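## retry 2 of 3
previous attempt timed out at serialization; input unchanged, resubmitting
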Amino acid sequence: MTTLIRASAAQQQGKPLRLAKRVLGAALIAAALVRAISVSAAESYPLSFWAAQTVNGLVLGGVYALVALGYTLVYGILLMINFAHGEVMMIGGVAGFFGLQLAAALGLLGGSSLAAALGLLLVLSFGMGVAALTGVTLERVAYRPLRNAPRLAPLISAIGASLFMQYSVLLIFGVRPMVYQRPPLIADGIRLGVVFIPLTGLIIFVTSLLLMGSLFVIVQRTKLGRAMRAVAADKEAAALMGVDVNQVIAFTFLLGSALAGAAGVMLGLHNGVIKFNSGFIPGLKAFTAAVLGGIGNIPGAMVGALVLGLAESLGPSALGIPAEYRDIIAFSVLVLVLVFRPSGLLGGGEVEKRA
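## retry succeeded, writing output
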């Protein structure tokens, strides 16, 4: 009885704080909207400018989504943040670069459209495969021995693994960026009215949607997906029911890392370069996207990534600040979400839904 009374009193005391947070959040949103309207009126940007920026935002969001899904999967299973995930994406991009050289040497990229498409699939598969192998190795070497350690230990291990992979690539391949030579098949784009959409950007957005849908089906509709949800809910109980917990966790890392590898390859094709630190900032922003959508929630990771990509692309112009400050917008979103809605836009979900 006393416990119930104390809980009720705590709830009553928390109501004014929650109300103050909502009022402050609404005021910040209103201020941002007023600023955006005034800047847009003063600058008189044409509609084509906003359409082009929206396309850029969706492309960025597609890349962030593929990486954010890996954060969400690992958090759903182990309740840990894999801060080396951005470097897994970078290694996938590096592997994709060498896959591109192999496809070019085999004469696939300069031939017919079918041959070029097969060559691009080879490049994508190469990047995803190497990234998946990297993720599984990372789980086995850096995380599995610390599974029963205090939660700070895997976090420190993840940061160490991130630095190890960055500087290993730097020492092996040097500081010079690896240049992706776009095949003629995807070198151009399509024009819708006054808006030009690069084919690489369209491929990134469509592929991210397809991969997210495939991942959702795997988690929700397959036997292995049920095992993943069982391990997320209670590892000990799942083990007693015959689930191989180590195998499920390794498969989770494999899935998330393969998606990150796909993001690395597509980012390389879109931007034209990949280098040793190409995964650091996108990895942090993908983590921001996962938190924004509700970490542990697969659709939430996609929604958060698209919202973050659009905010990063449209924000500087809408607020009248230099484009170099877009990183400030991305990480300000993270701070605001943690303060005003820690569960994210769609919520992290119940424990059994975190996978």
